[in-house]
């Protein structure tokens, strides 16, 4: 029988870390994900920044979690064997209005306990980032900002949760929840689950699930954003995360040196038109125009990919006002994380621990003495020394390079499939194939063949990203 102490709904970053933190206790735990893989919703497309806490309002839960998380993020990534770049950030202004905002954020950061932040003159900004336009007015430096790959982080947290006893159930969409005397029943497409408690991390659908057992309190009003990805040949143009503070009201530009060596540019902010994950021509043109102003010698001719993202903006039902802090609704061992956006990635572990600790306290759960916070990631040839690389590739599937742009071997692709990838994009998010300059033009066919072979199906059955996105007909 599908009976658990706690069920987590949603397999994004929040759900993965909630499940991981629940395994710190003697609680029988399951994670239910509607799709064929984890990290296919909001978590899959974001700016991948670990924020230091200068931007958030003093005294809020969001601020406390963000500052604590950023200062401990390197250790979290070390525990989970996830790549992390503690590159720091520069927030820059090109006039007095922007400079005033920087001074306010500096004061916020000091009050929030952010470490090492300092205001910079134009000369100091250019000393750190010489490719920024010489018209820059001033800057704010924050050393605790970093970057991470959100897919790696999500998969690692879920894998660690599974290794500590959590059940991960894919293709299990929740269609109804009923309150019982001793907990809840959860109806999915073909099964019924019983649980004492629920942690609702269902992203855009989180408020709908909450309203199955409670009065409406918060709804989500989505907005969309556009991103550009530059080739690794552009990597030397910036060393830090660059935040551009515009002179007039509106969204500035963010440039991110990713852990893969690309530069990520974005996002824009525009009304959601219902076409989730789509980009807009106007948005992409805006990113190119702003980039030319801020870093004139950074050519967007080096763009290798664009993608769209969705932002879950929570609003109170009673008055339509925006929710400015993290929205956590608690109702009789039913905890809903609704509309968690920036800095949601930064605080995913903090939010997961908060929810897990709250449930554990309600159930008087004992600590799990066998909990192991450590996880060993898959082999990445690009990260190995020449001696280790020679040892791994000798007479093995790691000796056959499939993705030439990233130098990714057949062995790494097989590892990704054995860890749960069933689509071409699932392999890309785990192994990196198809994310280089040619965007899969060379390796795509071979990845399809390897997926079909390892999964025991026909190549025509393989999809790009689930949901009927077939590649071969």
Q: Which band does the percent of strand residues land in?
A: 15-25%
Q: Report how far apart the termini are.
A: 40 Å
Count of β-strands: 22
Query: What overall form do the CA principal axes indicate?
Result: globular
Uncertain regions: pLDDT < 50 for 5+ in a row?
Answer: none
Alpha plus pi helix count: 12
Task: Outline the biggest β-sheet.
Answer: 9 strands, mixed
Over the alpha carbons, how many angstroms does the gyration radius reach? 22 Å
Give the helix/strand class.
alpha+beta
Give the mean pLDDT. 95
Q: What's the helical proportion of residues?
A: 25-40%
What are the key terms here?
alpha+beta; 23% strand; globular; 8-stranded mixed beta sheet; 473 residues; 9-stranded mixed beta sheet
Topology:
Blueprint: E1 3-9, H1 13-22, E2 29-32, E3 49-50, H2 61-80, E4 84-85, E5 89-93, H3 96-112, E6 118-121, H4 122-128, E7 138-142, E8 146-148, H5 150-163, E9 167-169, E10 174-180, E11 183-188, E12 192-200, H6 206-210, E13 218-230, E14 241-245, E15 254-257, E16 263-265, E17 270-271, H7 281-294, E18 303-316, E19 328-330, E20 334-337, H8 348-362, H9 386-393, E21 401-403, E22 408-409, H10 410-418, H11 424-431, H12 444-455
Parallel strand pairs: 1-2, 1-12, 2-9, 5-14, 12-20
Antiparallel strand pairs: 3-8, 4-8, 5-7, 6-7, 10-11, 11-12, 13-16, 13-17, 13-18, 14-15, 15-16, 19-20, 21-22
Can you offer a commentary on this structure?
With 473 residues, the chain is of the alpha+beta class. Helix 1 crosses helix 8 (348-362). The protein is built from twelve helices and 22 strands. It has helices at residues 13-22, 61-80, 96-112, 122-128, 150-163, 206-210, 281-294, 348-362, 386-393, 410-418, 424-431, 444-455; strands spanning 3-9, 29-32, 49-50, 84-85, 89-93, 118-121, 138-142, 146-148, 167-169, 174-180, 183-188, 192-200, 218-230, 241-245, 254-257, 263-265, 270-271, 303-316, 328-330, 334-337, 401-403, 408-409. Strand 14 and strand 15 form a beta hairpin. The mean pLDDT is 95. Strands 5, 6, 7, 13, 14, 15, 16, 17 and 18 form a nine-stranded mixed beta sheet that branches. Strands 1, 2, 9, 10, 11, 12, 19 and 20 form an eight-stranded mixed beta sheet that branches. The radius of gyration is 22 Å and the shape is globular. The protein is 29% helix and 23% strand. The longest helix is centred in the N-terminal third of the chain and has 20 residues, at 61-80.
């Amino acid at each position: 029988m599908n009976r658990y102490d706690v069920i987590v709904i949603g397999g994004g970053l929040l759900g993965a870390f909630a499940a991981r933190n629940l395994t710190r206790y003697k609680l029988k735990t399951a994670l239910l994900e509607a799709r064929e893989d984890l990290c296919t919703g909001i978590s899959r497309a974001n700016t991948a920044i670990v924020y230091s806490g200068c931007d958030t309002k003093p005294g809020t839960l969001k601020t406390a979690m963000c500052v604590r998380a950023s200062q401990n993020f390197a250790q979290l990534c070390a525990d989970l064997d996830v790549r992390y770049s503690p590159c720091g950030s520069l927030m820059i202004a090109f006039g007095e209005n922007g400079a005033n905002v920087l001074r306010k954020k500096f004061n916020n950061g000091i009050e929030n306990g952010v470490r090492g932040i300092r205001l910079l003159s134009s000369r100091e900004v250019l000393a750190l980032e010489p490719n920024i336009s010489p018209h820059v007015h001033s800057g704010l430096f924050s050393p605790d900002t970093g970057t991470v790959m959100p897919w790696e982080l999500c998969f690692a947290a879920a894998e660690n949760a599974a290794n500590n006893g959590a059940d991960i159930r894919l293709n299990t969409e929740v269609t109804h929840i009923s309150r019982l005397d001793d907990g809840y029943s959860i109806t999915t497409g073909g099964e019924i689950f019983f649980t004492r408690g629920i942690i609702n991390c269902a992203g855009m659908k989180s408020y709908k699930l909450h309203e199955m057992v409670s009065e409406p309190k918060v709804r989500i009003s989505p907005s969309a954003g556009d991103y550009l990805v530059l080739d690794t040949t552009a990597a030397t143009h910036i060393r830090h995360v660059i935040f551009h503070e515009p002179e007039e009201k509106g969204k500035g530009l963010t440039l991110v040196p990713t852990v893969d060596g690309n530069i990520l540019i974005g996002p824009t902010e525009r009304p959601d038109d219902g076409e989730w994950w789509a980009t807009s021509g106007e948005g992409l043109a805006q990113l190119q125009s702003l980039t030319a102003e801020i870093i004139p010698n950074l050519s967007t001719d080096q763009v290798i990919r664009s993608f769209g993202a969705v932002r879950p903006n929570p609003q109170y039902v009673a008055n339509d006002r925006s929710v400015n802090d993290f929205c956590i609704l608690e109702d009789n061992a039913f905890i809903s994380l609704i509309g968690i956006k920036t800095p949601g990635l930064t605080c995913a572990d903090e939010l997961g621990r908060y929810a897990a600790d709250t449930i554990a306290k309600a159930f008087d759960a004992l600590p799990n003495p066998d909990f192991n916070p450590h996880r060993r990631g898959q082999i990445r040839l690009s990260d190995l020394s020449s001696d280790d690389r020679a040892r791994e590739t000798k007479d093995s599937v790691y000796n056959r390079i499939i993705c030439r742009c990233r130098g990714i071997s057949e062995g790494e692709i097989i590892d990704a499939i054995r860890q749960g990838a069933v689509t071409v994009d699932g392999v890309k998010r785990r192994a990196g194939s198809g994310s280089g300059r040619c965007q899969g033009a060379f390796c795509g066919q071979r990845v399809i063949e390897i997926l079909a072979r390892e999964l025991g199906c026909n190549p025509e059955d393989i999809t790009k990203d689930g949901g009927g996105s077939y590649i071969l007909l």
